[in-house]
Design brief:
Blueprint: H1 3-14, E1 31-32, E2 37-38, H2 42-49, H3 58-70
Antiparallel strand pairs: 1-2
Length: 80
């Protein structure tokens, strides 16, 4: 995974703000954190990859996202 590509996605999703929340959209929780995971889905996603289930933990959020992209789940993000 190209780390610059991931940084660009995080910039697009959250403005690189690990505490960002999009209260304008709700589907099983609000898009939250660095990569704007839906907060209701995030705990299971992070646990699957062995990371903290706190959606606002930037390290966990970034590594969970990278693992999901590696596994072909990039279609879940609007920013590409």
């Amino acid at each position: 995974m190209d780390e610059n590509h991931l940084v660009n996605i995080a910039r697009c999703e959250s403005g690189l703000n690990p505490k960002a929340v999009n209260y304008g959209y709700n589907e099983n929780g609000y898009p939250s954190g660095l990569f704007q995971h839906l907060s209701g889905y995030y705990p299971a996603r992070a646990a699957k990859y062995g990371y903290s289930t706190d959606v606002f933990d930037a390290y966990s959020n970034a590594n969970t996202t990278a693992a999901m992209f590696r596994d072909g789940l990039s279609y879940l993000w609007e920013c590409k």
